[in-house]
Amino acid sequence: MAAKPKLHYTKGRGRMESVRWLLAAAGVEFEEEFIETKEDLEKLRNDGVLMFQQVPLVEIDGMKMVQTRAILSYIAAKYNLYGKDLKERAWIDMYVEGTTDLMGMIMYLPFQGADTKEKNLALIIERATTRYFPVYEKALKDHGHDYLVGNKLSWADIHLLEAILMAEECKPDILSAFPLLQAFKGRTSNIPTIKKFLQPGSQRKPPTDEKFVAVVRKIFNI
Questions:
Q1: Alpha-carbon distance values, 50 to 8, 34, 41, 63 (Å)
Q2: Which of 44, 92, 170, 196 has the highest count of CB atoms within 10 angstroms of its CB?
Q3: Among 36, 46, 43, CA closest to 10
Q4: Is the domain of 161 the same as that of 206?
Q5: 179 CB-side CA count, 13 A
Q6: Model-level pTM greater than 0.90?
Q7: 63-85 pLDDT, tens digit each
Q8: Terminal CA-to-CA distance of the chain, rounded, Å?
């Protein structure tokens, strides 16, 4: 039996959370080895397993994979979540890049000073409702399918649901003007593997709080 993928990262969301989402949605069990101190990170670096001295690191299929995008692409392709041809893959990539941009803004919000946090929160809400969510609403409307690409669950859908839930943590009614995205959220949240991941006690990580920000600053010397 193949070994479970092993994820090396902090105990928070960060860049690893989308990897957790994708594996969970694919129904793949995984192990986690948490980086809790600066010394833990230095050990990985000294062991020579971090190609660019950075995490995330995922051990999978005999490889020690780094770089979030490479990890996610591999998992999506391995578990048939990456479209049926090059064109579908291109659409999935475009949609994923959009949600990645939005999620990046949200991810860095807790690390910002009080003087800029309020302004950036307003920018996140503005971008989500005028630049990103209208694209996905239109895609669902134009093709009339349940999913973004090929009428089949893909990485694009899983990433979009993660982004929606992150945006709702910023503003609970952020989907109020997007009925098709509200329906999409309901459908995808009830896919059994995803529903399981959304339950308390799963490997999904909580929103970043001040305590965790302090831990991350210490580990990564920022």
A1: 10, 15, 10, 11
A2: 92
A3: 36
A4: no
A5: 1
A6: yes
A7: 999 999 999 999 999 999 999 99
A8: 41
